[in-house]
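Q: You know discrete backbone vocabularies at least as well as I do. I have my own habits and do not want them to colour yours. No explanation is needed for now; the record alone will do.
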Amino acid sequence: MSKHIVVTGAAGMVGSHVAEQLLARGDRVVGVDDLSTGELANLAGVLGSDGFEFIETDACTLPELPAGTDAVMHLGSPASPRHFRDLPIEVLRAGSLSTLNILDLADRSGATVLFASSSEVYGEPEVHPQREDYRGSVSTLGERACYDEGKRFSEAALDTYRLRRGLDTRIARIFNTYGPRMRLDDGRIVVTLVQQALRGEPLTIHGDGTQTRSFCYVDDLAAGLIALLDSDVVEPVNLGNPVEMTVLEMAELIVSVTGSSSDVVFEPRPENDPSRRCPDITRARELLGWEPTVPVADGVARTVASIATMIGAPLPTATAEAP
């Protein structure tokens, strides 16, 4: 049966892909976004569609859920290193006040709440790959703390409302995600390096490039979030790609896909930047029947094509022929 689902952060990269997948399966969707970091253009494929409504507002001050709401997918938050530096108060509010408001609204209406947490709750991990039962090693200080601690607070809030109010909750711990509709000024590694490669500029890596990440294509992540929403799993679930690669390997892949002749340059590494990041997705596989299906090389090729169009750069021949 179709559901009536509110998606906060709907105009962001992840939110817009989630909205599309929900609508494609027949759900009704209300997208909520204040457009501070999201872009209405990301919703071009669904605006005006039957079953979709958009509300421009901050989730902190959303006064009520639409009548008949079955679930809220709370995805809204500034999420890039640039935002941690430029919008730290907004990041803190998104990780606290907006979550509490959504929980109170859902508590009154009986809606399920899915919260988009992050692998950043693991901090500088001492366990590898990271399992959901690992409590993390996170600093409460520094530039990244506004985001990391906001996610940890929100997880605690969901669990408290579940235990004390009987609210039906889901917690997704999202690892590095990339794909079409990333902001060009996002500051995260894939969108930054792709633009530099397409423009023939040096590729900038912070640190020596040996730090690792696990890159999940956005369509896979959106499918994982929806699978979690549809489940009855109340424990946190890692959603990400278990294929680990170094930052330098990602740079080399982008150079290969774009056909760029750019060199790599190294700059100082940011404070509290994690050394290793890789999810153990056993819980997602066993309880949700979910795992990523898009190989990183294919996902990067699709992302390069999207960014090339956005910046008016020639599309590399290899990318144009990629599946």
Q: What stands out?
A: The chain has a mean pLDDT of 94. The radius of gyration is 19 Å. The domain at 4-178+216-239 is CATH 3.40.50.720 (Rossmann fold).
